[in-house]
Amino acid sequence: MKTLHLGAAAALFCLSSAASASSFYVTTDIIVNAIDATSDATSAITGSFKNDKLVLEARDDAASFVGSNGDIRGVRLEAAMDHLRSQAPQLQQASDAQLAQAILAI
Length: 106
Prior knowledge:
By secondary structure, the chain is mostly helical.
């Protein structure tokens, strides 16, 4: 009977280890994809818009937006995000948070 309990415990341990490893890989993939998307948005903005007055004037609003996790949305930031999306079609898919972080990176 003791051997049966040990076997069952070993099987449960193996299953829980596999589930933990799988969860780790999924979480890692999500984080890497999010960073990659932010990096793409940052690259598209910093190269093309680093001298754009409308975008540069939105930096304070972008800092407030990022610092408040999106709760504070300034008028200049809204105008800059609309401008960026209209000038660069590849940024249509970027989230507001990604654009705000990219504006801060300029």
